Amino acid sequence: MSTDLLRRPLGITLLAAFFVFGATTCLLTIVLLLVPDSPLAFLWRLNPQARAAFTHMGPWAFVLMTTVGAACGIAATGLFRGKSWGLWLASCRATNLIADLANAFLREDRRTLIGVPIAGVVIFYLLSRQARDYFLHQS
Fold first, then answer.
1. Do 116 and 97 touch, CB atoms closer than 8 A?
2. Helix, strand, coil percent values for the chain (each to nearest 5)
3. Domain tally for the chain?
4. pLDDT at residue 6 tops 70
5. DSSP character string of 65-128
6. With b meaning 16 or more CB within 10 Å and e meaning fewer, what string describes 55-94?
7. In this predicted model, what pLDDT tens digit does every residue of 23-60 receive, in sequence order?
8. How much is the pLDDT for 139?
9. Distance CA 68, CA 99 (A)
10. What range does the domain containing 36 cover?
11. 35: buried, middle or exposed (CB in 10 Å: 19+, 13-18, 0-12)?
């Protein structure tokens, strides 16, 4: 086991896993859009509004999901490896709380408010001394 793994704070490892989950979700969404009658189509029942919105977007849905998924995957890699660009990208990605707030109030979709405290905790942790020290010593 490498010494880097031993020194990586648990919070950084959990955030990297969170971003891997985000990338995986984007990939799954792309697959569901490409193969609408797949055995996994039942997953749309979790958020039927998302299916309608992505279908309405047409090809832009693929662009969006590819971009967000790539950002999540790259952020996860950077966090896991202790790279400062991973910290920066994860911090930028966590600012989606602005989009969550906009959706909650402009589209009156209060369910998106769940993302606000999550993004707040992520940003707060990434700005913590523990996280900053880890990335400072990895360079």
1. yes
2. 85, 0, 15
3. 1
4. no
5. HHHHHHHHHHHHHHHHHT-HHHHHHHHHHHTTHHHHHHHHHHS--GGGGGHHHHHHHHHHHHTS
6. eeeeeebeeebeebbebbbbbbbbbbebbeebbebbeebb
7. 999 999 999 999 988 898 898 888 888 888 889 999 99
8. 58
9. 13
10. 3-138
11. exposed
Structure-token pair, residue 93: 């990605």
The first and second tokens of residue 35, run together, are: 């193969």
pLDDT tens, position by position, 79-129: 999 998 998 898 887 777 677 777 777 777 777 777 788 888 888 899 899
128: left (phi over 0), alpha (psi -120 to 50) or beta: beta
Res. 2: pLDDT tops 60? no
Amino acid (one-letter) located at 71: A
